[in-house]
Design brief:
This protein is an alpha+beta fold. The chain has a domain at 66-152: ApbE-like superfamily (T-fold, Orthogonal Bundle), CATH 1.10.3980. It has helices spanning 37-58, 66-73, 83-98, 108-120, 126-133, 165-179, 271-284, 286-294, 328-334, and strands at residues 5-9, 14-23, 26-34, 79-80, 141-144, 149-152, 184-189, 192-196, 204-210, 213-223, 226-232, 238-240, 243-245, 261-268, 299-307, 310-315. β12 and β13 (243-245) form a beta hairpin.
Length: 339
């Protein structure tokens, strides 16, 4: 089902169209501002269709998907794949190198191991973890971008795009909206935001949640033609034998992340980049994470750590702005949950 709202802003004479669908196990909301209602409807429908298409392309849980074919047969012989998918895999491998393996699309078997451990209330053995580590790792992906083929060096290797699907979809949807003459839009994919603003607009403030009190916003950033993604530990942790573990698994150790970091929000021109780096920085830690951001152009981060039970804010390039009390509630609503 979809939700459609029409709103007239009497001050700016702008009209907006907002629709919502359930995709990739979460809600995707698209709001566009327009002068021509019919063109706005058409643009929004095209954007949703693109998100549906990407979900079908990237899922590894449907036998007919390209990713499922890759996972089933790439160890036996190289598989010819679509250029789009080859380019996405190439980007993921590049960021795996940049993050020293903290981001890795082959980590899915380790995630499944710990998910099953949580269900059975049993901590995985060192041998189980070691065995999987020997059969994971982005270095075992053999990608030939020119011929658009992929092969695996390990028999149990699998790729999974769960950590990048929303960000990649946001980039593609924003491109489609721009091609259809939409200048201003708000996209919210399960809390991962992408705001498009025409040049005359200054951008919009987005609240960042207090990880120790998620109903409150303790910081804000202004985004314009940018994406913001947050990885946090306050929503999706799991418990095994009375101990709480982070849902984020370190691809290098096979263990749930242990860190003082409570949340990482990354702002960039690309939803894909924000998605990747918010996860990678959480795993890398504060020092390495900040060093990574400082070496990159057009990327900024707000990292919140736990300082003796109080949230401590670390912002690259002083991008983050303190949020006045009068704006906390509205900004918190515009910022979704952690990933």
């Amino acid at each position: 089902m979809s939700l459609m709202n029409y709103i007239k802003n009497k001050l700016s004479e702008e009209y907006s169209l907002k629709r919502m669908h359930y995709l990739m196990d979460t809600f995707l909301s698209i709001e566009v501002f327009y002068a021509d209602e019919d063109k706005a409807k058409e643009a929004v429908e095209k954007a949703f269709r693109e998100a549906v298409r990407i979900e079908c392309v990237l899922t590894r849980f449907k036998d007919e998907s390209e990713v499922c074919r890759i996972n089933n047969y790439s160890f036996d012989k190289p598989q010819v794949i679509a250029k789009e998918l080859a380019n996405l895999i190439s980007n993921c491998i590049e960021f795996s190198r940049k993050t020293s393996g903290a981001f890795d699309i082959t980590v899915a078997p380790l995630i499944e191991l710990w998910a099953n451990a949580a269900k059975q209330n049993i901590v995985p053995s060192p041998n189980e973890i070691s065995s999987l580590l020997q059969n994971t790792g982005y270095e075992n992906i053999i990608l030939d971008s020119e011929s658009s083929t992929i092969a695996f060096a390990k028999s149990l290797l699998k790729i999974d795009f769960g950590a990048v699907g929303k960000g990649y979809s946001l980039d593609r949807m924003a491109k489609i909206l721009k091609e259809n003459k939409i200048e201003k839009a708000r996209l919210d994919f399960g809390g991962h935001l992408y705001y498009m603003n025409s040049q005359e607009h200054e951008g919009e403030a987005v609240g960042i949640r207090n990880p120790l009190c998620p109903d409150e916003a303790i910081e804000a950033v202004t985004i314009k033609n940018q994406s913001i993604a947050t990885s946090a530990n306050y929503e999706r942790n799991f418990n095994v034998l009375g101990r709480t573990y982070s849902h984020l698994i370190n691809p290098c150790t096979g263990q749930p992340v242990e860190t003082d970091i409570l949340s990482v929000s990354v702002i960039s021109d690309s939803g894909l980049v924000s998605d990747i780096l918010s996860t990678a920085i959480f795993i890398l830690g504060l020092k390495q994470g900040m060093e990574l951001i400082e070496d990159m152009d057009n990327v900024e981060a707000v990292i919140i750590t736990n300082n003796r039970g109080r949230p401590e804010i670390h912002s690259s390039r002083d991008r983050a702005l303190h949020l006045p009390d009068s704006r906390q509630e509205s900004a918190a609503l515009r910022k979704g949950g952690g990933g």
